[in-house]
Design brief:
Elements (H helix, E strand, L loop, with lengths): L2 H7 L6 H13 L6 E4 L14 E7 L5 E7 L15 E12 L9 H17 L8 E3 L12 E8 L5 E4 L2 E12 H9 L3 H12 L13
Parallel strand pairs: 4-8
Antiparallel strand pairs: 1-2, 2-3, 3-4, 5-6, 6-8, 7-8
Length: 215
C-alpha cells in the first residue's frame, strides 16, 4: 500500500496494526472476549514495558489451554512511515500456549515473561526468529517445581503470518523446553537442531502447548 492510499483509508485515530491482528484472531476465536492485560505505562510514554498489552483466549483445540497473544512488537497504530514497510515493527508478535497450572488463578507471570523478552529485543536491538531459543535463567514460572527452564520459538501453528498495511507480522510462539533439551540445543546451536527438537515434540503435541509438569 502506497502512502497516498494509506492516508485515504486511515486516519490518526485508527489502530491500523491492532485491527489487522484482531481480524485474524477473531476468525480463530469468534464471539470470544479475551482477558486483556493492558500495560499501565508504556515504554513509548516513559515506562519500562514495551508491550501495550497481552490478550488471553480459551482454546479447546487438542486439549484445553490458554492462548496468550502480545500486542506491541509490531506497529499497532497509524504510522505513515510504516505504510510501505516490508515488516511491521520488529516483524512479529509473541504467542504462548499453556495448560492451566493448578496454582494459576491469574497467570500474570506469562505477561511478565513476554514483557521481559520484549524488553530484551528493544534494548539489545536483537530480535527473535523461528527456531531461536533462549534460557529463562531458572524455572519459566518462578518458584515452581518445573523442568521447563528455557524457550524455543516457532511459528504459531494456527495464526502463522499475516500481511498488514504496515508489513508482515509473524505470530511467534514461545514453547517451553526442559533444561536437558536446552543443554542439547546449546551443545549444537544450529537452527536445524531446534527444528528437529520441536518436530519431535510436535508428534504428541501438534500445537506445542507448554505443560509445566512435563518431565
Amino acid at each position: 500500500m502506497n502512502i497516498e492510499e494509506y492516508r485515504k483509508k486511515y486516519n490518526e485515530d485508527d489502530a491500523v496494526g491492532w485491527k489487522s491482528m484482531d481480524e485474524v484472531i477473531e476468525k480463530l476465536y469468534p464471539n470470544q472476549e479475551p482477558k486483556h492485560y493492558a500495560t499501565i505505562l508504556k515504554m513509548m510514554l516513559g515506562g519500562e514495558d514495551p508491550l501495550d498489552g497481552v490478550s488471553v483466549y480459551k482454546s479447546d483445540e487438542q486439549e484445553k489451554h490458554d492462548h496468550f497473544i502480545s500486542y506491541g512488537m509490531s506497529s499497532l497504530y497509524y504510522d505513515e512511515e510504516s505504510a510501505e514497510g516490508e515488516f511491521s515493527g520488529w516483524g512479529f508478535e509473541f504467542t504462548f500456549r499453556l495448560i492451566p497450572f493448578e496454582e494459576d488463578k491469574d497467570p500474570q507471570w506469562v505477561v511478565s515473561l513476554m514483557q521481559n523478552l520484549a524488553r530484551y529485543v528493544f534494548n539489545s536491538k536483537k530480535w527473535f526468529e523461528e527456531f531461536h531459543f533462549i534460557p529463562a535463567n531458572g524455572p519459566i514460572r518462578l518458584n515452581t517445581d518445573t523442568e521447563i527452564t528455557a524457550i524455543a520459538f516457532v511459528s504459531d501453528p494456527e495464526l502463522g503470518k499475516i500481511n498488514t498495511p504496515h508489513g508482515e507480522v509473524q505470530f511467534l510462539q514461545m514453547v517451553g523446553i526442559t533444561s536437558k533439551e536446552y543443554e542439547q540445543l546449546l551443545s549444537n546451536p544450529k537452527t536445524t537442531e531446534t527444528e528437529k527438537l520441536l518436530e519431535k515434540l510436535r508428534k504428541d503435541n501438534p500445537l506445542l502447548i507448554t505443560d509445566l509438569k512435563r518431565r
